[in-house]
Amino acid sequence: MDVGLALFSGFVYWLSSCKVGYTLESSLGSGLFIGFMFGLFFGDMITGLALGASIQLVYLGMISTGGNMPADNALAAVIAIPIAMKSGLDANAAVALAVPFGVLGVFLDQLRRTSNSIWVRKADELAQKGDIKGIFKCAYIYPEIVIFFLRFVPVFLISLLGTDSVISLIESLPAFIITGFSVAGGILPAMGFAIILITIGKPKLLPYFFIGFFAVQYLGLNNMATAIFGTCLALLVIFEKSKKEA
């Protein structure tokens, strides 16, 4: 049992999902940031970022309609990345391992929302009394205490009691099952891109997507070169559109 890793995992998940300061909430909960944090913890930044980026691709097109999230990418990354880094799983297999935990995170979020209704009713009662400090506590302090127990405690226990068991199970599995995980995990990021295409919903934008895809696959351009070419192409489109409007 690695108590230090369990404590760190619980803290990272709480940090990524706490509601203090909505500005950084989406960034702190991204797979890339969580991969960065575990890269620091394990002293292997490249592997941590690679795993985090692979998991983030799955949830790239995720939209929380009405504030209800369809999956918890933060929990998926917090559980899967340390297991993958300790067991040596590749990025694709880690993605396949992460997805079920992303679904589990939705239930934890529903518990958070249910508990928030208690503080809303309490705040209404305090508003009638003019208790501003009490309203502040109901809006910030009490919900954060609940979030801490809903986020930190489950991940701490899973990481403390379950990580070694999962690693032992992975090491005992036949090679063809691990290969199957890798193949399935390799498909999931493509689904993330497909969701983005559906979300965009504009056929005139699809050629730009395929230009970038084939530039990477067949021309061998790296991410930086592709980003520079993409920025230049976007500027050309903006300049041409400005001329027509003028």
Please describe the topology of this protein.
Layout: H1 3-17, H2 25-28, H3 31-42, H4 45-58, H5 73-87, H6 91-129, H7 132-172, H8 175-200, H9 206-218, H10 223-245
Helix pairs in contact: 1-3, 1-5, 1-7, 3-4, 3-5, 4-5, 4-6, 4-8, 5-6, 5-7, 6-7, 6-8
Task: Report what the structure shows.
This protein has ten helices and no strands. It is 82% helix and 0% strand. Helix 3 (31-42) packs antiparallel against helix 4, helix 4 crosses helix 6 and helix 5 runs antiparallel to helix 6 (91-129). The chain has helices at 3-17, 25-28, 31-42, 45-58, 73-87, 91-129, 132-172, 175-200, 206-218, 223-245. It is flat and about 65 Å long. With 246 residues, it is mainly alpha-helical.
| Multimeric status of the protein | single chain
Helical content band: over 70%
Q: State the distance separating the first and last CA atoms.
A: 67 Å
Main beta sheet strand tally, sense and closure: none
Strand content: under 5%
